[in-house]
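Entry type: protein chain
Record version: 2
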Amino acid sequence: MAEMGLQKINVGEAARILAGRWAKEILNEGKDPLLCRKQFEWLWIKSDYARETQSVGNLDDEVCIAESMGQTQAQIRGWVTERLRALSV
């Protein structure tokens, strides 16, 4: 690793990098962010609930709550998209 100039990173940072790449892919390829929310939950669980991915780890639950509170799909899609934008920076 030293010869290649690579650094060892912790699980949380690795999860954040992966989640950021997924978010960019979803946004750049025009995928529906509502259909991709479970992959972030999976990553959050696999990373032992890393705080670096907490903002998207509960998306699935938050979407279900928003739906039960009467928010429209357009409203929900809007704030999910904003979360992904923030993550993909």
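Comment: The chain has five helices and no strands.
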